[in-house]
Design a protein that fits this description.
By secondary structure, this protein is an alpha+beta fold. The protein is built from 17 helices and 13 strands. The strands form 4 sheets. It has a 4-stranded antiparallel sheet with strand order 9-4-11-10. Strands 5-8-7-6 form a 4-stranded antiparallel sheet, sandwiched between helices. A 3-stranded antiparallel sheet has the order 2-1-13. A hairpin with a 5-residue loop joins strand 10 and strand 11.
């Protein structure tokens, strides 16, 4: 699923912080139901709080809208309610929310200073607050899972992309920001095997502590896991095996609830996995700990010093960059073509769509988009170079976050320009696919609105709604 598409059309999840809930409590005397979707009610305070969130976000982006934020907020909340209700009807699984609730409760307690102070602020017991958050987060996750399900099978053909591009008005053609074409020489630390062994031994020790009852996997994950997306949730994940890398999926499929796997190696590092419960509809709920190979300072300096020695040979014309890449680079994709960096992740699926152009904005946002392990360190190195120049060796990471050293050579800078089908096919394809998904989702949503009971308070009925059939 494309990240930009999700950010554009996915129902905005409302994260109810302590200040948000406190603001709701201050409005409790004025609160009332302003809409009902199915059997779910929307309160005036919900709409007000979300509207303020929309206004604040737009101000930070320097963007204003002619649309009333109260109506926009109400429609977004009605969409979320409908999607969640439909997810229940269609039995769409979205995994557990308990760890997300606990994480947020812990943050609120830390902000308040104690449980008793938090209960005083919120005018409710911690149990009731936990139940409120569980309901809200479940709605958010269920709505997101339902929307993903609706658009999961949407694809687009090259013919459709061409028709889409030809139908765009001039002002609708996307601008392609400045792009780099460059080459690289990559070196991993020579002590990689030793570092991997150390990492396996650390995980085996953790596995023994879990099995013996001396610790729990969620506590160890919070403390030691190198997976930023799950560490704070105690390593908790819900997924189908098809969405997981094969070695991980194979190990997970062999587990029984409560059982801990042996150490599993993937391209991301090393894992131990504990299945939490029997899978439902092929969705596994599990916890895992990820550790990446850990190096000493001396081990990390070694590949930098090696590349610096190669750099001196290149700059003295004793060795060509292309030959050095073929002889010494550890990147199997670029070493074969003189170090030229390509989007090899895309090439594995669409070899005809070769791309060697990388957007400067993606480096700056650290949004690699399957571009083969780009990082801010790469951008900073490239941004200082003139065409034809070679950087000094620097520390960087590959696509999976593994540490390495790199030197880069800037081959070409392509200025900002309007996308063309010939030169920027992937950019056009992405926009075309996102728009197609949006149309599919909107058509589905419009039909579902007609199938659900919807009530909107008279105060809001004359407001501007994207979907007119909310008003019945």
């Amino acid at each position: 699923m494309n990240k930009r598409f999700l950010s554009a059309i996915l129902i905005v999840c409302i994260i109810f912080s302590a200040s948000f809930l406190a603001a709701q409590k201050r409005q409790v005397m004025l609160d009332r139901v302003v809409a009902i979707v199915g059997s779910s009610a929307i309160l005036y305070s919900d709409v007000t709080m979300f509207a303020q969130q929309i206004v604040n976000e737009r101000r930070s982006q320097g963007y204003t809208s002619d649309r009333d934020p109260m109506n926009e907020s109400l429609e977004a909340l009605m969409k979320q309610k409908l999607l969640f209700n439909q997810s229940q009807i269609d039995s769409i699984e979205f995994g557990t929310v308990d760890d997300m609730v606990s994480e947020q409760i812990d943050a609120m307690i830390a902000e308040a200073g104690s449980v008793s102070k938090l209960e005083e602020q919120q005018h409710m017991k911690i149990f009731n607050l936990r139940q409120l958050l569980r309901t809200r987060i479940s709605e958010q996750k269920g709505a997101g899972a339902m929307q993903n399900h609706v658009i999961s099978d949407v694809t687009i053909t090259p013919g459709e992309v061409e028709i889409y591009y030809k139908g765009l008005k001039e002002e609708e053609i996307p601008l392609v920001p400045e792009q780099y074409i460059y080459a690289q020489i990559v070196r991993y630390p020579s002590s990689q095997a030793e570092a991997k062994l150390r990492t396996k031994e650390r995980l085996l020790e953790m596995r023994e502590r879990i099995i013996s009852g001396k610790s729990t996997i969620d506590l160890l994950a919070r403390t030691y896991s190198d997976d930023p997306g799950t560490a704070m949730r105690g390593g908790l994940m819900s997924s189908t095996t098809n969405e997981l890398t094969p070695p991980f999926a194979d190990a997970l499929a062999e587990l029984k609830p409560g059982q801990v796997s042996e150490v599993v190696e993937t391209e991301f590092g090393f894992h131990i996995i504990q299945l939490q419960e029997e899978p439902k509809n092929n969705i596994y709920t599990f916890r895992h700990i990820l550790l990446k190979p850990d190096y000493t300072v001396e081990e990390l300096v070694e590949p930098i010093e090696f590349l610096d020695s190669i750099n001196r040979l290149i700059r003295s014309d004793s060795l060509k960059f292309e030959d050095a890449a073929a002889l010494h680079s550890h990147d199997t994709y670029s070493q074969k073509n003189g170090g030229l960096v390509t989007n090899h992740d895309v090439l594995t699926k669409y070899p005809q769509l070769s791309n060697v152009k990388f957007s400067a904005t993606k480096f700056k946002k650290d949004d690699f988009g399957g571009q083969g392990g780009k990082s801010l360190a790469d951008y900073y190195a490239l941004s200082k170079l003139k065409v034809g120049e070679i950087s000094n060796a620097f520390s960087s990471e590959d696509l999976n976050g593994n540490e390495l050293a790199r030197i880069v050579k800037l081959l070409e800078v392509i200025p900002t320009h309007s996308a063309t089908l010939t030169d920027d096919y992937l950019t056009i394809e992405e926009k075309a696919l996102n728009d197609k998904k949006l149309k599919v989702f909107n058509k589905w949503l419009e039909e579902k609105i007609d199938q659900h009971y919807v009530y909107v308070d008279p105060e809001f009925r004359n407001g501007e709604f994207e979907f007119k059939n909310w008003i019945k």
